[in-house]
Amino acid sequence: MRLAVFASGNGSNFQAIAESVQTEQYAELVVLICDKECYALSRAKSLGIPSFVLDKTKKRKEYEQDVLEVLRDYKVDFIALAGYMNIIGATLLDAYEGRIINIHPSLLPKYRGLQALERAYENKDSEVGITIHYVDKGIDTGKLIAQESILNNGESLEELEEKIHALEHKLYVKTLKGLLK
Ligand code: GRF
């Protein structure tokens, strides 16, 4: 299976996936797609993975057609969103429905959308977690694939963020392995 990752930021999940496919070879990570300049691109460069920044100031349909062109050039079978700060529109969904997944830092259906962990923290939830789900036309509404949680024992938000990220890297790799093998 030929995998693409989409990212808009730091790219730590992208890196975890890239390293795992390189060592375990359960798929081929063929391209990183970003909607803006971000640190994930530097990671791709160091890892030797082709990357593209596409211009999202265009209309969504045109932007997604550009994305599709790259996906077709690289013969991509499956897409993993990892901190990609864009809604997936009809153009991409029609072409890849059932083959796009996302990771979200909450126990969905709780805290869909932005600042999910921050909101759980402010509400003093005793348990926080992450979800991997299929992407549909809603925001974090697609069918759930995997979840994992940790107890919030009064840590700082920064400590929780660190734990959540470590959990994400493991669960994203494990889930992709299960889906793509
Ligand atoms: C992760 O917390 C993920 O759940 C959310 O965006 C963050 C991306 O982190 N969708 P990174 O860019 O992979 O480090």
Task: Spell the H/E element sequence.
Answer: EHEHEHEHEHEEH
Low-confidence stretches: none
Question: What's the N-to-C terminus distance?
Answer: 8 Å
* Beta content: 15-25%
Keywords:
single chain, 181 residues, alpha/beta, 7-stranded mixed β-sheet, 41% helix, 23% strand, binds 5-O-phosphono-beta-D-ribofuranosylamine
How would you describe the overall organization of this protein?
There is one protein chain. Helices cover 41% and strands 23% of the residues. The chain contains six helices and seven strands. The chain has helices at 12-24, 39-47, 60-73, 90-96, 116-122, 157-180, and strands at residues 2-7, 28-34, 51-53, 78-81, 100-104, 127-134, 144-151. Bound molecules: 5-O-phosphono-beta-D-ribofuranosylamine (GRF). 5-O-phosphono-beta-D-ribofuranosylamine is lined by residues 7, 9-14, 82-83, 103-105, 168.
